[in-house]
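Field reference: sequence -> structure
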Amino acid sequence: MRTIHRLLATLTALLLGLGLVVATGPAASAEQVERQISINGKEPKPNKFLIKGKIAPSTGERVNAVIETKLCKQDKDCGAKWKKLRGIETNAKGRYSERVPGLKKGIKRVYYRVSTRENEKFLAAVSPEIYIYRIF
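Structure field:
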């Protein structure tokens, strides 16, 4: 009789334990939200280039992002790999502004984009690309 009671107690504890694991499983893995990154290029002075934009949705906290660049010696998209230029941080409203280098000798186009990494709340995101090109 005692073995039956112990067996029933063990099964009951096991079922209750499984119920708690199943009940807390979906709550722990909340869905991640997509980010939207805007990007604009400005030239306030000759040969001084700025990248400005916004990362939305704004959480009221600073967001870490990366400016990536691609240097092309050809006039069209050259297929070069994206390289990290520098890390940036947004303000509390999600806005960023950063000075970037322009064209170097022998380079026809320089492409820029901004990207963020994936974290618990947000998926990884990449902005559209913009470029500076040499006319002559």
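Note: The first helix runs from residue 2 to 28.
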